[in-house]
Amino acid sequence: xxxxxxxxxxxxxxxxxxxxxxxxxxxxxxxxxxxxxxxxxxxxxxxxxxxxxxxxxxxxxxxxxxxxxxxxxxxxxxxxxxxxxxxxxxxxxxxxxxxxxxxxxxxxxxxxxxxxxxxxxxxxxxxxxxxxxxxxxxxxxxxxxxxxxxxxxxxxxxxxxxxxxxxxxxxxxxxxxxxxxxxxxxxxxxxxxxxxxxxxxxxxxxxxxxxxxxxxxxxxxxxxxxxxxxxxxxxxxxxxxxxxxxxxxxxxxxxxxxxxxxxxxxxxxxxxxxxxxxxxxxxxxxxxxxxxxxxxxxxxxxxxxxxxxxxxxxxxxxxxxxxxxxxxxxxxxxxxxxxxxxxxxxxxxxxxxxxxxxxxxxxxxxxxxxxxxxxxxxxxxxxxxxxxxxxxxxxxxxxxxxxxxxxxxxxxxxxxxxxxxxxxxxxxxxxxxxxxxxxxxxxxxxxxxxxxxxxxxxxxxxxxxxxxxxxxxxxxxxxxxxxxxxxxxxxxxxxxxxxxxxxxxxxxxxxxxxxxxxxxxxxxxxxxxxxxxxxxxxxxxxxxxxxxxxxxxxxx
Length: 556
What we know:
By secondary structure, the chain is an alpha/beta fold.
């Protein structure tokens, strides 16, 4: 038995450890920078909060001072509720995450982009006359021109390739002899353009690729550009070459001109930037998605826990049902029993909570009050003052009490005596006869460890089976014993209706009925969701209630 308990405890610790690691990964690591204070604070919180939760759970059983229990209870218990809904929200976020990322990627692809442009500087010959007209930026034209002497001849054809389609273009020049500076200037302007001059200045390059994909092709070997006077181009006289141009003929050791080397470096840098840009954009999108999902999960968890806390401190709502009993006498028709369970006075819910419960019950003016267990989570010394308002319960036939499992964790005998002092009548495996039916109560099954478990024979063995019997029993699991002893209606609590969704599905595994009215043979079972909360003062999907059960007779 000890080995099984140790194994279960180990599995629980492993599960909680895995859940906390997952929450830390999604809420801290994925959204913060390494070494920054947000990550350090988040990491410490994920470590400290579960330790506070463990402290809140064990401090009462360990006999810690009540003040310490109250200090640990709020952060420790509230973290348990927050952890539940934060984890559920993050799991849902795993499905949202890829959808959001794909939406951002599609949006980025649809966004217009400006292609990068590369500008290559060229060296222009110092020739007389007005500057030649620049060629379009979408093409690079390389031209080869024979050496000119005194007669201006037509230039050689230049081959231009645009989007893969070659085109041969010839630039004619006027025939005749150059007789003066004006004619020489006109001839030079007719046969040369800035791009042609650039091509002539790069003798070892046959092909140039422009950024927009236009390729210009020229002969692999070209001669220096000639001027109208027959002399080759020379550097501008009034300009001192830079250190980059100090090599012979203005050519760098690798065979390229300085301007071409600078252009190649710019293209290389642009290519590297183009490769890094998509990766950076993808990283930015992933970070945005991670932070969006984390913020959404945090908001959902906070809102859920906040509303669940409000529902508890707002106080229980009154629920009314009518239960027909075949054996109920006519005089008991319409008899009203206010059923309240699981008040759970403790480090968080105190005297104010008890006062809300008492006021709600008194407003409905019942014929009888039935407190069906789990009144407290602590000793009489610590919680006696919190239970004091029970003294003011009002009902025609009085108030009755049966123990729950938490009373046996808190000193059941002392609490039985104390509630008797407060004016409630404990039913410890006993019954009382009321006009029209019998009211019986049994101890909780947790009392078996102390030799004070439920005893149906003692409570119901010698009664008149012709009268209707109403049984108060904390846990619904005893319904089968109630059926065997001819009980007409059993009133129970214990389940809290699951308290925190989806806890109701787990509660169904351990209880025949989680909440509401169901029939088992000739016996009906009603299970209240309870008026308080155990652990976190939070209820989600299972609002607290006080139920007014109205009995109906078929003879009325």
